[in-house]
């Protein structure tokens, strides 16, 4: 681990910032800096729009752009996440009743062997006599691939696995089929596309030497399963507003072919991850300017202070920082988030992050039972990461003085001592 800020250095900075009024002035200055310098430049957004159009022509209709660029909260390290969701699943067996399809996949979360945040996809088929959907007995699930350039339709199928009396879609088989195919149906075109590599459930590419793109194939679900409806009923202060909440619930969710890494081998093959990127995007857009700026400061701290000291450890991520902002925004009054209080809010968030690190439990905003640290507990407790977080919390917002993006702040802070 690299060297940390010395206590002497921290005291030196405190010598110049002695009052709440001075901290408020610095907060406003930081807020103005983020608004002018760090917010996504229009050129990058334009390039992403161009990419969107090109990719749609080459690969056919596709879903939503998510990630920091879509939220207009981009930094140089941010990426774009594109969700290909031209296929759908249902949130419950009852949702299939009026469907004209002969087979459907239905989200199932009601089993102790399914970790929070995950699901199985059970197959149902229409009975030829009753015309009602019943659990399938087939060993495969048919689907079609449509090429965006030629409009050619190709028949294909995924494996179904027998799990506890139901046929469930094989996540492993889906990923194996995807790994054998390119991003288009034309090998010649694929050779000239930017090199892409597996990245979690996605394929990662870099465009224009400016931004990374993660392309994720997922199932779309237009209605939310019960496990994703609970968060809407929580007690909250002022955020999100009722109208935002209602719009978020209309976004539906995605099912992504990424197991949890903690299930037994028997169930890993059929385990999928629930995704709520559309709801996250809507909620991020509804944050106040101060809340968004605090989120950016947290990402700066992560990318420029924490990660360089633990380059081989993936403990805290930008996604954790997003969940942190969501939780703190929900639990506090809107008056808390003002430009003159930006650094105070930043300190408040650092304190909550430390509590999560110390307890080894980071609750997902939509499914609190889903611990985002559940696969990282060994890394948290087996090195000095907790010690680093404790020192950052002690330093409070002054940790920003040692981040490259915020180096200008040193001179501004010293000016109070002149």
UniProtKB/TrEMBL annotation:
<dbReference type="InterPro" id="IPR046903">
    <property type="entry name" value="Mab-21-like_nuc_Trfase"/>
</dbReference>
<dbReference type="Pfam" id="PF03281">
    <property type="entry name" value="Mab-21"/>
</dbReference>
<dbReference type="InterPro" id="IPR046906">
    <property type="entry name" value="Mab-21_HhH/H2TH-like"/>
</dbReference>
<feature type="domain" description="Mab-21-like HhH/H2TH-like">
    <location>
        <begin position="290"/>
        <end position="379"/>
    </location>
</feature>
<dbReference type="InterPro" id="IPR024810">
    <property type="entry name" value="MAB21L/cGLR"/>
</dbReference>
<protein>
    <recommendedName>
        <fullName>Mab-21-like HhH/H2TH-like domain-containing protein</fullName>
    </recommendedName>
</protein>
<feature type="domain" description="Mab-21-like nucleotidyltransferase">
    <location>
        <begin position="211"/>
        <end position="283"/>
    </location>
</feature>
<dbReference type="Pfam" id="PF20266">
    <property type="entry name" value="Mab-21_C"/>
</dbReference>
<comment type="similarity">
    <text>Belongs to the mab-21 family.</text>
</comment>
């Amino acid at each position: 681990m690299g060297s940390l800020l010395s206590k002497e250095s921290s005291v030196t900075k405190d010598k110049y910032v002695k009052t709440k009024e001075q901290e408020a002035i610095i907060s406003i200055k930081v807020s103005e800096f983020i608004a002018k310098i760090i917010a996504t430049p229009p050129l990058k957004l334009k390039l992403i729009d161009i990419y969107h159009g090109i990719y749609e022509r080459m690969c056919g209709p596709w879903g939503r752009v998510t990630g920091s660029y879509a939220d207009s909260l981009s930094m140089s390290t941010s990426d774009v996440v594109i969700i290909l969701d031209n296929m759908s699943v249902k949130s419950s067996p009852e949702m299939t009743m009026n469907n004209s399809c002969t087979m459907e996949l239905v989200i199932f979360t009601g089993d102790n062997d399914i970790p929070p945040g995950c699901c199985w996809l059970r197959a149902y088929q229409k009975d030829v006599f009753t015309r009602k959907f019943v659990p399938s007995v087939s060993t495969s699930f048919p689907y079609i691939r449509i090429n965006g350039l030629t409009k050619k339709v190709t028949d294909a199928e995924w494996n179904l696995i027998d799990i506890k009396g139901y046929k469930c879609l094989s996540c492993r088989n889906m990923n194996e089929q995807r790994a054998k195919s390119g991003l288009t149906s034309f090998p010649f075109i694929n050779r000239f596309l930017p090199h892409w590599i597996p990245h979690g459930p996605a394929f990662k590419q870099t465009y224009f030497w400016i931004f990374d793109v993660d392309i994720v194939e997922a199932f779309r679900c237009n209605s939310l399963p019960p496990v994703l409806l609970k968060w809407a009923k929580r007690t909250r202060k002022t955020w999100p507003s009722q109208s935002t909440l209602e719009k978020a619930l209309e976004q539906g969710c995605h099912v992504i072919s990424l197991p949890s890494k903690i299930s037994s081998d028997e169930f890993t093959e059929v385990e999928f991850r629930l995704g709520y990127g559309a709801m996250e995007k809507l909620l991020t857009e509804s944050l106040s300017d101060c809340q968004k700026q605090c989120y950016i400061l947290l990402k700066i701290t992560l990318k420029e202070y924490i990660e360089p000291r633990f380059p081989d450890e993936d403990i805290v991520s930008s996604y954790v920082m997003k969940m942190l902002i969501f939780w703190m925004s929900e639990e506090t009054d809107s008056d808390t988030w003002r430009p003159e209080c930006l650094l105070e809010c930043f300190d408040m968030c650092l304190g909550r992050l430390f509590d999560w690190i110390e307890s080894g439990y980071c609750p997902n905003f939509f499914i609190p039972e889903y611990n985002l640290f559940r696969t990282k507990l060994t890394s948290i407790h087996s090195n000095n990461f907790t010690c680093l977080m404790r020192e950052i919390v002690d330093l409070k917002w002054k940790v920003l003085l040692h981040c490259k993006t915020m180096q200008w702040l040193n001179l501004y802070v010293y000016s109070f001592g002149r």
